[in-house]
Write a structure and sequence with these properties.
GO terms for molecular function: ATP binding; ATP hydrolysis activity. This protein is α/β, with parallel strands linked by helices. The chain is built from twelve helices and 15 strands. The protein has two domains: about 230 residues, 3-Layer(aba) Sandwich (Rossmann fold); about 100 residues, ACT domain (Alpha-Beta Plaits), CATH 3.30.70.260. Strand 9 and strand 10 form a beta hairpin. It binds adenosine-5'-triphosphate (ATP).
């Protein structure tokens, strides 16, 4: 549905976006992650040509946007809503008038527009705030109003630029749940720029990681969380799982390991929960497992687990047990033994 082909954006010789190609399918919730200045906003603004790329093609629903006339482009843009970190509401208009604003020139009667706006306010959960002014709303309510306004033109695509960055964690969860609900209800395609991996985890089915204007890694959210390859992706995933921090804490607090003990990290994806595996390696190899720390998360419904354990037993048997675990799809990282902790 959205295809960005070899997009580059050059600001006076500085490449803010550098040959990026992305495919976003209908009803995807596509996350774009990266540090400040990575080029996320510039890239996303190319989708509705608020930013004209210096090079490349922007294909939306099979149409080459760069070949459209200004009039045609204005019409297509109406089907692409946008919400922002700082809401960008018009402060001198009431909440309902903010929602009507993008459709104020439509061929409908005033009554129809009011009814539509009120329905949208109900949908986003602030039906009772229609006659309030933005200054009378909380941050979460302001973003709800901005979402209602973005939906007024019946968009097929919603671009969200750090839409939850100014909100506290609880309100962030509520807004993400609302976006998910709307997405499911009207089949909206969502492109969401964020530096919060929690946002990706809660809402997105796919994610691209940007650095210095380039996409350095992309995949399904499950792939990115369970098996990040790029160093930056690993750092981002770590911010939400804290596995490395947990490992450091375990290492700092563990007393010396015995000659028959090894410290390892077990990582797995999917239904192969470790409990039966731990029982099996005890039965097969007489290896005793002691779980020191663990974290299991559900990414788009699939469990992703990280356990820090000690194995106790004959060295050769531990090696066999590790091989057995790896052959069953568990990732095993050796962290130390009686000779020292890595
Ligand atoms: N209109 C512009 N003129 C010149 N440079 C620009 C312009 N817009 C963005 N840049 C530069 O392009 C780079 C990418 O900016 P962009 O806003 O796309 O990054 P970002 O990843 O969205 O960052 P943030 O998360 O801080 O919004 C930055 O170095 C920025 O200073």
């Amino acid at each position: 549905m959205i295809e960005l082909k070899d997009i580059s954006v050059d600001f006076d010789g500085f490449k803010a976006v550098d040959k990026v190609s992305l495919k976003i399918e209908k009803a995807d919730a596509f996350g774009i992650v990266g540090f400040s200045g990575a080029g996320k906003s510039t890239l996303v603004r190319c989708i509705n040509l608020l930013q004209k790329p210096t090079e490349g093609e922007v294909i939306v629903n099979g149409e080459d946007f760069l070949k459209l006339s200004d009039k045609e482009l204005r019409k297509r843009r109406k089907k692409i809503g946008m919400i922002f970190q700082h809401f960008n509401l018009l402060n001198n208009l009431t909440v309902i008038d903010n929602v009507i604003f993008p459709i104020r020139k439509d061929q409908k009667s005033k009554k129809e527009k009011l009814e539509k706006a009120q329905k949208l306010l109900e949908l986003v959960g602030i039906g009772d705030k229609a006659n309030s002014y933005p200054r009378e709303l909380s941050g979460g309510q302001k973003q709800r109003c901005a979402i209602a306004r973005a939906l007024a033109s019946d968009p097929e695509i919603l671009l969200c630029d750090e839409a939850t960055s100014a909100l506290d964690p609880k309100t962030t969860k509520q807004i993400l749940a609302l976006l998910q609900e709307i997405k499911d209800k009207i089949g909206l395609t969502i492109v969401i720029i964020t530096h919060q991996m929690e946002v990706v985890k809660d809402l997105c089915n796919k994610v691209a990681v940007m650095q210095d204007g380039k996409v350095v890694e992309e995949g399904t959210t499950l792939e990115i969380f369970s098996n990040p390859k790029n160093k930056l992706t690993k750092d981002f995933v770590e911010t939400s799982t804290n596995v490395n921090q947990t490992i450091e804490e375990v290492k700092n607090n563990i007393s010396a390991l015995g000659p028959d003990e090894s410290l390892v990290k077990l990582s797995y994806v999917g239904e192969s929960t470790t409990e039966p595996v731990i029982n099996e390696i005890y039965e097969k190899f007489s290896i005793k497992t002691n779980v020191l720390a663990g974290n299991i998360e559900f990414i788009t419904g699939t469990p992703v687990g990280n356990l820090i354990v000690t194995f106790k037993g004959d060295k050769e048997k531990i090696d066999q047990a590790v091989e057995y675990l790896i052959s069953g799809g568990t990732n095993v990282t050796f962290l130390g033994d009686s000779n020292g902790i890595l």
